Amino acid sequence: MSTTNEVGGPGRLTVHDDAQQMIERARAEGIETVWDRLHAQEPQCGYCQLGLSCRNCAMGPCRIDPFGEGPQKGVCGADADTIVARNLGRTIAAGSSSHSDHGRDVLEVFAEVAHGGASGYRINDEAKLRRIADELGIATEGRSTTEVAVDLADELVANYGSAKGSLSFVSRVPAIRREKWAGLSITPRGIDRENVEMMHRTHMGVDNDYVNLLLHALRTSLADGWGGSMIATELSDIMFGTPKPVISEVNLGVLKTDQVNIAMHGHNPLLSDVIVAAAQEPELVELAKSYGASGINIVGLCCTGNEMLMRKGVHMAGNHLMQELVLVTGALEAMVVDYQCIMPSVVDVAKCYHTKVISTSDKAKFPGATHVSFDPHRGAEIARDIVRMAVEAYPSRNQSRVRIPVHPVRMMGGFSVEAILGALGGTPQPLIDAIVAGTIRGAVAVVGCNNPKLPQDLEHIELTRTLIENDILVLVTGCAAVANGKAGQMMPESAALAGPGLRSVCEALGIPPVLHMGSCVDNSRIMQLAAALANALGVDIDSLPLAGAAPEWYSEKAVAIGAYVVASGITTVLGVQPSIFGSSNVVNLLAGGLDGVVGAKFAVEPDPYKAALLIRRHIEAKRQGLGLSHTAPELITANESGGEPVHVNARS
Length: 652
Prior knowledge:
By secondary structure, the chain is α/β, with parallel strands linked by helices. Helices cover 47% and strands 10% of the residues. The longest helix is centred in the N-terminal third of the chain and has 35 residues, at 80-114. The chain is globular, with a radius of gyration of 24 Å.
C-alpha cells in the first residue's frame, strides 16, 4: 500500500499504518472522512479562530477587526477582551457540563443500585465504597453496604447544586491550595451552580471584566475536575471495579474476520459494562455460531473503550479519528454509541456497509441510526437486545469487502491511583524518594483528543517518547493513551525506551514508563495522585515537578480539563492554539499572569520536541524550588520501593 506523503496524502494525515490503509480505501470507494470535510472548510473563519466573533444576542453577530481598521467593539460595546473571555468562559462551561453530566448519569444509577432498582448493576468494590464514605464523614461501622451506599449517594447528589458550601472531594486538596482558592473566591461549589453563573455572566450586559470572567471560568472548571468528573470516576470504580493492571491489544487488528464485531463508542461505562456481559451469554454466542460466526467480539473506541480496557482488558480499536475508519474495514456488525465525541458522519459511512449504528442515550440521538433508549432499570435486558441486533446483522456482511489491515499491538492499562500506590507498597513515598533522588525527574500528564489539523497521534507519540527518554514519567488518559498504546510505549518491556533512571524504576516494578490511567473523565485520578504527593510532602501542588500537556486537543471538554489542571497548580502545554489570540490581555493572563495567582499557567507549543524542552525546563525549575538536584545518582529497586512487580490479568 502507499503511504505517500504528498500534501493531503495519508502519510501526512496519520502516523499509523492501519489508518493510512483505511483512508486510502475510503478515498478509492468515494467515502468521505473527517479529513475531507476539514479540507472543504478551509480557510476557516479567522475571526472565530481568534475568538473575536460573538453571537450571544440578536443585536449581532458581531466581530472585532484584529488589525484595528474595522470595528473595535460589538454593537453592545463589548471589546476584544470581553468577547474573547466570554467565549472562553462558555467553552469551559460546555466542557465542564459534558463530563459532569456523565458523572450525574453514573450517580443516578448508583443511587438506583443503592435502593435496589437497577438491573445488571451491583456494588463491585465494597472496600472502596466504605473507604470513600469514611473519607466524606459517612458512618460505616456496623452498617450494611446498602445503608452506606444510600448515604454516599445523598452526599454526592448535594455536590451538583448549591446545597453544600464546597465540593466533598475538595478535602483532598492541600490546605494551602484551598486557601489560595478561597482568597480568589474560586473555591468550587456545585457544577450546576457554577455553570449557571458562568452562562449568566456571559449574557449581554452582565460581566464585562475579562479578569473576573476568567476567574469564574476557572471556578467552573474546578467544579468539574474536583466534582462531576471525580464523582464519575469514583462511582464507576465502586460499581464496575477499580482498575488493576491488565494486558490488552490495540489498533484495527483487534477486529476478527470470523466473529461478530461490536464497537462500543462514546464515554459512559453504564451501557458498555452490561453489553460486555451480554456478549458472553451462551444463548447469544450460540446464536452467532448459528449464523456462521465463531463468537462475539467486543472492541472499544474512544473513552468508552478506555473504560472497558481499564477494567476488563477489552481490546481497543482506536481513538477519536479512527471512528469512521473502523467502519471502512467492512468487518463491523454494529457501532453502539452513548455520547460525546461521536461524529454524526458515522451514520453516513455505515450506510456504505452492513453496519448498524445503534444510539442509546436520549440526550444524543443521530438521524439515520437505530435508537434504543437505554434504561438502567432494564439494563441487562436492553444489552441482550442490542447484542442480538448485532448478531443478526452478521449474515449481511460482504466478506469480500472485509479488510483488517494490521496485526494488533499489545498494551497495558489499568493504572488507577489504587493500583499505582499498590505497586509502590501502599504509599506514595517510594515515588517521592525516586523524584528526590532524581531517578525520576518528574511526571507529566499527556492527555486529550485527536485533531485532524495535525497528523494523527504524532504529537502524542513524539512528546511522550522525548519525555520518557529524559526520565520523566508519563501518565496518559483518553485518546492519548490509545496513541501511545499503538506506538508500543505501554508495555513493561517499553522501559527500554526510557532514560536510565525511569527505566530502573519500571523494571523494578514491572510497569511501563507510560501509565494508562483511564478515560478523559479519569483525569480526576491524576489530580488525586498529585494532591496525595503534595499532602505527603506538606507543599502545594504547584511546588511539585509536574506538568500537563494536551498535544492534539479539539473538544470543549479538553479546555475545561486544562483549566482545572492549571487552577489546581499544574502548568499545561497545549499543542493546538485556542481561540483567544484576539485579546493580548487574555493571552497574557493565561500564559503568564495566572502563574502569580494560581501558581501555574498555559503555554502553546505545537512542536512536540520544543514542547518537551519547555516541559523539561519547567520540571527542572520546580525541582530547584524544592532544593532537589538535577542528577539521578541512585536507582530504586523493588525491595527499596516496598512493593512488588505488578501482576496483570491478560484478556484472552
